[in-house]
Amino acid sequence: MQRRQFLRRGAAATVATLGLPALAQSDRKIVLGQSAPLTGPAAQLGLQFQRGAKLAFDRLNAKGGVNGTAIELKTLDDGYEPERCKANTEQLIKDGAFALFGYIGTPTSLAALPLATAAKLPFIAPFSGAQALREPFNRLVFHVRASYFDETTRIVNQLVATGVRKIGVFHQNDSYGQAGLEGVTRALKAHNLEPVAIGTVERNSVDVQAAVGKLIAAAPEAIVQISAYTSCAACIRAARKAGYVGQFYNVSFVGTQALAGELGNDARGVVVSQVMPYPFAPVSALATEFLSAISASQFDIEANYSSIEGYIAAKVFAEGLKRAGRDGSREGLVAGLEAMRDVDLGGFFIDFSPKKHAGSSFVELTVLTQDGKVRR
Questions:
Q1: Structural domain of 240
Q2: Are residues 158 and 245 in the same domain?
Q3: Element holding 238 (H helix, E strand)
Q4: Comparing C-alpha atoms, which of 339, 317, 158, 330 is closest to residue 250?
Q5: Which of 124, 156, 264, 323 can pair with 336 through a Cys bridge, CB separation 3.0 to 4.6 Å?
Q6: In terms of domains, do 286 and 345 share one?
Q7: Contacts of 329 by beta carbon, 8 Å cutoff, 6+ apart
Q8: Which of 200, 245, 206, 195 is nearest to 229 (CA)?
């Protein structure tokens, strides 16, 4: 009863700040809790994911919700810091959140996951490909994106296929960076190779000079970056200034448009692996729907990989809730998500089962242009 009373509370303040129309009338409402960076060096990742998710939920709510249930996304700012994320999660659980959704980043998600598990809350669509969130298997956790192992394998295989064998790694000095480094190392080992040099940067820092010096000294033909967009951009600019002419590869978490914005003209030729469908043109049914929703919306949202990931994550959650039926319990949600076998969302497929909660392994490589565009 207490939870139901909480879930019926209005979201007027949150909706007003984003310029969203009021929720459609519904006999029920559930609140999803999210901790994400809305400020700080990784803010664009959190803001764009959140806006994409809200765009999808807004459309659903305007049509009466899911099985008569409206969905509210309550987001607390963690600045991409694990301790703040942990405190946010404790608050969201205390306030009666139905599930946790769209946490941004590996170190923050790892800080929150034990709390979610202890409270028996589903943990849906973390914006991370870290293996530590996937193994050991946790029946409450559902992944919408491919893993960092999937991404780094694709990157390394592409480099080796083009004759590149001297590969360095620039990574964030935390669980996210370690996950990416492990992925690169594993992929290189399959070709009897290892990184020629490894440089690190602290989370939420752009102090990259030592890392760049170490990497350039080893003369790699390519550098794979596992960090956020501000530090990756700082690394690229510093390396180019020092005369480095090799290639730069990034995994999807970097935030493609945010990286392009930081780099300006220096973006030319930088490669980013993607785990979501191309969001900039109506090249798929899903992208067409997404772009149409943006055009019809009344709040500020950009079409980019981060926002379409939030949009897709919201659609996956809603489909799981729909399959749960009018009961709409947490157990029903888990069962509903597990029933999503090879579901086509419009050219992007999600495949869950009771023993498989990694819904996608889709990865493709894209290249940034000098004017900040993304070429497939």
A1: 148-274
A2: yes
A3: helix 229-241
A4: 158
A5: 323
A6: yes
A7: none
A8: 206
Q: Do residue 134 and residue 175 come from a single domain?
A: no
Q: Give φ, ψ of 34 to 5 degrees.
A: -135, 135
Q: How far apart are the first and last CA of the chain?
A: 51
Angle at 173 between CA 190 and CA 302, to 5 degrees: 90
Above 50 in pLDDT, residue 359? yes
pLDDT category at 328 given cuts 50, 70, 90 is: confident
pTM for the whole thing? 0.92
pLDDT in tens, 193-235: 999 999 999 999 999 999 999 999 999 999 999 999 999 999 9
Please compute the mean of the pLDDT values over residues 72-98 and round it to a whole number. 98
Quick check: 288 and 345 in contact, CB under 8 A?
no
Residue at which a domain ends, from 233, 256, 274: 274
pLDDT tens profile 147-203: 999 999 999 999 999 999 999 999 999 999 999 999 999 999 999 999 999 999 999
Nearest to 102 by CA among 51, 58, 42: 51
Do 320 and 265 reside in the same domain of the chain? no
Q: How many domains does the chain have?
A: 2
Residues constituting the chain: 376
**Contact assessment for residue 147 and residue 157, using Cβ atoms and an 8 Å cutoff:** no
Per-residue pLDDT tens for 294-311? 999 988 899 999 999 999
Mean pLDDT score of the chain = 93
Least Cα distance to 211 among 168, 259, 258 occurs for 168
CB 289 within 8 A of CB 346: yes
**Amino acid letter, 215:** L
| Residue ranges in 63-95 assigned as alpha helix (H) | 82-94
Does residue 299 sit within a domain?
A: yes
Average pLDDT over residues 43-50: 97
The CATH code of the domain that includes 88 is 3.40.50.2300
Residues 269 and 154 in one domain: yes
Please report whether residue 370 resides in a domain: no
